[in-house]
Write a structure and sequence with these properties.
Elements (H helix, E strand, L loop, with lengths): L3 H17 L5 H12 L4 E4 L8 E4 L5 H10 L22
Antiparallel strand pairs: 1-2
Helix pairs in contact: 2-3
Length: 94
């Protein structure tokens, strides 16, 4: 992914659609609002909705600020994925 701000906007648009269809809930909206107010590029509900589980797109080096904002908004747990390069192809020198 090269355009992180675009991905953030698309996440926000997707969440707005899900919210308008009734798929969000008070806890989701509170956490998403906190993430966006703290500077997240995008945030949306995760899972089936209504459960208070969200995903936020955030610069890795400044994650403490996001974690603080989510904690103050009532998050009971925060998971920071470990970024790995993924699968690679190794070619034999023959």
């Amino acid at each position: 992914m090269e355009d992180w701000p675009l991905l953030g906007r698309l996440m926000n648009e997707n969440h707005a659609i899900q919210r308008d269809l009734g798929g969000s809930g008070e806890s989701n909206e509170r956490l998403i609002g906190a993430a966006l107010e703290a500077g997240a590029l995008g945030s949306k509900l995760a899972g089936a909705g209504h459960g208070g589980t969200i995903i936020a797109l955030w610069p890795w080096e400044d994650s403490a600020r996001l974690e603080q904002a989510l904690g103050e908004a009532g998050a009971s747990a925060i998971y920071r994925p470990q970024v790995t390069p993924g699968a690679t192809i190794e070619e034999d020198g023959d």
